[in-house]
Amino acid sequence: MLYLISLGNYLLFHTVVELFSVYVAYVIFLIVWKSRSRLENGYLIFIGVAFFFIGSIDFLHTFTFRGMELFPGSGINLTVQLWIAARYLESITFLLAPLFLIKRKEDVNPDVEKRYIISPDSSAFAWNVFLVYAAITILCLLSIFFFRNFPAAYIEGSGITTFKILSEYIISFILFCSLIALYVKRDHFESKVFNLLAASIALAALGDLSFALYSHIGEFPNITGHFLKLLSFYFIYQAVVGIGFEEPCSLLFRELKHREEEFRQKAIFLGDEYHLICRMIGANRTSEPQNKSSDKERVQENYHPFSDHFPGVWFQLDENFMPVSIEGPVEEVSGYGKDEILSGKITLTELVVPEDQPSVFENRKKLKSNPRLVIENELRIRKKNGETKWVRKIIRGIESAPEGSGNFQGLAYDITERKMAEEALEKIERIRIKEVHHRIKNNLQVISSLLSLQAEKFDDREVIEAFRESQNRVASIAMIHEELHGGESPDSLDFAGYLQKLTSDLFNSYRVGKDGINLTLELESVRLGMDTAIPLGIIVNELVSNSLKHAFPGINEGEICISLRNEEKPEFENEIFDSVPDSPENSNFHYILTVSDNGKGIPDDIDFRTTDSLGLQLITILIDQIDGSIELKRDQGTEFTLRFND
């Protein structure tokens, strides 16, 4: 058959295709591995980890090409064996991956509408897949390189073997089966992600069919197969890398987004249910019986709507809050039978977890002092089997209660599902905010790098300095978003820890000729929100930069001090010293930040509020932005004192 390209050009083309495949495989692995703790899509985790090992075998395959000399004397057989091993691993990966997609099940009890998600512990699952694939890859490589029991794929003088041809057909068949499995699970993907993955698998299958049809390198089926492989890896690159970066909620966090919507709808439903209960209670309190009856019958009549329409527990309590009567699914809610509770074997207080018991006693005091009061609260109870559940309790006094009946009546119902939905929504929102901080931080770091690259094109010292100052300002903001992304709270950060990192970076930025300048930090732990932390970070950046640049001209020794303290008085101090008026400058602010140096100081004839210096202008603008105050002292150097609130 006619050769399409020369051997040299073929090897170059083959090398480019393989290196691109290796690059795609490693990038997919890095993205999935870095996101593994937050991913709930087992398909992506499985594919991402597997591609690390597929890419590694392809990488070894590349180094067996003629001229690479990494494995001298290995011959074409080793090249084809590694190719077959990588393709088997790729096809089986695509076939098994749909099995690890998130499953949804419905509770078998038709009276309880519950949906839950079964998903693996993502990080542990990723490590398990990594170890399994590592073992498989090592066994394959040992079989090829050391034991040499891997079937021959190419024989010098006669060409490719039957094993190689059959393997290509088998691999294509497996890939087509995996395409069907992916189609069955298509609802787990956005349409464009599914289309890209399906196209990638289909092209890989067609590519392996092409490789089964050639007898020598350089022939049309061989060249076609490499083109199809190139396109296959390009499509999976677009599916995971392109969409993963541009629209993470369409791929990496799709299940999280859907769960958020599901929980939001559930919260709305439960909220409507709660309002219905409130209306029932309101109707119950205002209704009056039409016919005369005994007081006890009237009290029992009040409970009729609850027992008929409400799936909770309703009860009567005596003056000591001991149960007189109790109705409803008591055992389902508490795990104890009615007799156990009415006999006093287990008291209602003992059901409540110890952390929530103080609120129970406080509410009882309020009810005794005002019988007309209606108390509503949410608390946790521990069932007989040790399970903890959330319940909402509503209780009120019974006016003119007859002897033998309860003095208080109320109801309790299970709100565990609602609480779980609220906690899940809160967790999802925290993850969303953290991801926003992460992306902002990355974009700011890109801007900082661009400023650094742009500065290298200039020789003017003032221009370079201006770029460096801008770079430091951007970096100070990026560092805040990094702290918010990595911290416990997505909307506040430990400003003391942030100042330590910021000043360390600034000293590194101006380290040339400044080795003798010491930094002293006296920082109390203070948590600030982003709206306050960002302006303050820029202010500290400007003040410390000015000290490093201008306070110590011609000398290599000095000291810069930064202190941060919380001036907000505890409640007991406010009560004790309430009659002592504070000075106006301290009474309105909770925090004091001081930046000082023992350098030459700012001349007396310069007003920092009206100077032409961009840095000092920024300080004035930003301190006004956070409604703070700033004071300058020029004794023995320079000392700026900032007072502010969060």
Automatic annotation (TrEMBL):
PANTHER family, per this entry? SENSOR HISTIDINE KINASE, SENSOR HISTIDINE KINASE PDTAS
Is Magnesium a UniProt keyword of this protein? no
Task: Cite the EC number.
Answer: 2.7.3.-
Q: Which NCBIfam families match?
A: sensory_box
Q: Where is the PAC domain?
A: 375-427
The protein, known as: Hypothetical sensory transduction histidine kinase
| SUPFAM superfamilies named among the record's database cross-references | ATPase domain of HSP90 chaperone/DNA topoisomerase II/histidine kinase (SSF55874), PYP-like sensor domain (PAS domain) (SSF55785)
- CDD domains tied to this protein: PAS
Q: Which domain of life does the UniProt lineage start with?
A: Archaea
Query: Which Pfam family, an example, fits this chain?
Result: MASE3
Instruction: Name the UniProt key words of this record, in alphabetical order.
Output: Kinase, Membrane, Transferase, Transmembrane, Transmembrane helix
| Entry keyword Kinase | yes
Q: Which PROSITE patterns match?
A: HIS_KIN, PAC
Classification via SMART domains: HATPase_c
Occurrences of domain Histidine kinase (ranges): 435-646
**Species, as recorded:** Methanosarcina mazei (strain ATCC BAA-159 / DSM 3647 / Goe1 / Go1 / JCM 11833 / OCM 88) (Methanosarcina frisia)
Q: Which GO terms describe its molecular function?
A: kinase activity
